[in-house]
Design brief:
Blueprint lengths: L4 E6 L1 H13 L5 E6 L2 H5 L6 E6 L2 E8 L4 E2 L11 H6 L1 H11 L1 H15 L3 H21 L16 H10 L6 H18 L5 H13 L22 H10 L5 E6 L2 E5 L4 H16 L12
Parallel strand pairs: 1-2, 2-5
Antiparallel strand pairs: 3-4, 6-7
Helix pairs in contact: 4-5, 4-6, 4-8, 5-6, 7-8, 7-10, 8-9, 8-11
Length: 289
């Protein structure tokens, strides 16, 4: 009945699916989340959203429904593959970039330990990242995203499209790492972000083990246009209202723009391509197929 509890144990995709079911059954039953991945413990599992992909769109169907409780048990991460342990690190880099320069410094100091999945370093990162996400939701004044801005989705306009282009072969965290790198280079080229800070962010992502390139970024449509650029309009549609993209002025200081200079976006994509080609030991995510 409507006073029942539904407990979900799993990663972000499963938590989202079950969260949607609990939000709609009897117009909402109590939902308890027990996240089992780095990404869900420090980001998606502690939020108020749920959604599933549909009609070729990321999170097209969903609701805003805060869980009754979230239980994070670090021991559940022990059996994850390295790729999935790493996946959530990027959301910590993201929230540090837009909200907390001191947290960014801490991630830099712990980068080698995080790359080696040292438990205490991972616990610190997950706890601080989850706390920053929850504080933003509680204090931003727009927990259910009625406006057109979504600063916690820094780096996500390209990431969501990249996931779709790759048919979700690229994990969410891997796509966000590329999206953050792309937007940092763009912000630098637009004279918003100093070169040294752009370099700090890109180097940190690489130290954590992320590739900053996928050949899917160069996929073209029938007219020869880069498919990833469609992510801008799809991102606007998903938020509603005006296009609103979060960029950086400094580490720890995000701000919003309402248009993107496409030639500068193209230049940023090609710079990432050249960066990957120039690193002989670089991990490059191949194009789908």
């Amino acid at each position: 009945d409507r006073h029942s509890y539904l407990i979900c144990v799993g990663g972000g995709a499963l938590l989202d699916m079950v969260g949607l079911a609990t939000a709609t059954a009897h117009r909402g039953i109590r939902h308890v989340r027990i996240p089992t991945t780095t990404l869900s413990q420090n980001d998606s599992g502690v939020g108020v959203k749920n959604g599933i992909n549909a009609f070729g769109k990321k999170n097209f169907i969903g609701t805003f429904a805060p869980p009754f409780a979230v239980i994070n048990d670090f021991q559940l991460l022990a059996t994850l593959e390295p790729r999935d342990k790493r996946n959530g690190f990027v959301e910590a880099v993201k929230v540090a970039c837009i909200r907390d320069a001191n947290f960014f410094d801490e991630i830099e100091r712990d980068a080698d330990a995080l790359r080696d999945f040292e438990p205490s370093a991972m616990q610190r990162l997950i706890h601080q990242c989850a706390e920053l996400h929850m504080n933003h939701i509680a204090t931003s004044g727009d927990p259910f995203e009625m406006g057109s801005a979504r600063p916690l989705d820094f780096g996500h306009w390209a990431a969501h499209k990249l996931e779709q282009i790759s048919e979700y072969r690229i994990r969410h965290g891997e796509a966000v790492a590329i999206g953050i790198a792309l937007d940092c280079i763009y912000a630098r080229d637009m004279d918003f972000l100093e070169d040294r800070n752009c370099d700090r962010i890109l180097r940190l992502l690489e130290r954590l083990g992320f590739s900053l390139w996928s050949n899917d970024l160069l996929q073209e449509d029938e007219e020869g246009k880069l498919v990833v650029i469609e992510g801008l309009e799809e991102f606007r549609e998903h938020l509603g209202g005006r296009l609103t993209i979060t960029l950086l002025r400094n580490v720890g200081e995000g701000f919003e723009v309402h248009e993107m200079n496409l030639p500068k976006v193209f230049n940023a994509i090609h710079e990432l391509h050249n960066r990957a080609e120039g690193q002989s030991n670089s991990k490059v995510i191949p194009a789908n197929g």
